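quick one before i forget lol
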Amino acid sequence: MDLDSLSAPDSTNRVRGRELALLVLLWLGSATLIFMLARGVIFPRRFIDEFLYWNLAGNLSHGRGLSWNGEAIQLRSWLYPLVIAPVFRVAGRVDSQYQAIQFLNSGLISLVVFPAWWMARRFVGPGLAFFAAVFAVSVPAMNYAGIIGTESL
């Protein structure tokens, strides 16, 4: 056994650690930029969907379950109200809640950098995989972080 084979895992771990650190910085940077852009949305644009998810999450956070006017509702996508429900406990005013949900959406939608990097890393080198992650958060669909909708998931 030679010394080069013993040091190879450490250098590989260091390289992977650097790649992961760059990826986390990309995630944080893109989430911050997307949140700053999302703050321009100050009122609902897709009123029915946003109103539905807003009220379901509010009811859920206050212990009323996924209900609409006291009636249980069948919803195809119940994960999103579960994810945003804690915001209603943390933020008190409606405008604070709306901004907190935009902040949460920005972080969630920016998580696309990780699977994009992972899939690209399987086929190309680390530099090109990082660019794939950059391109993944550079699409216009990132503006969905400004609305209350399942697109962020």
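fyi The first strand starts at residue 67 and ends at 68.
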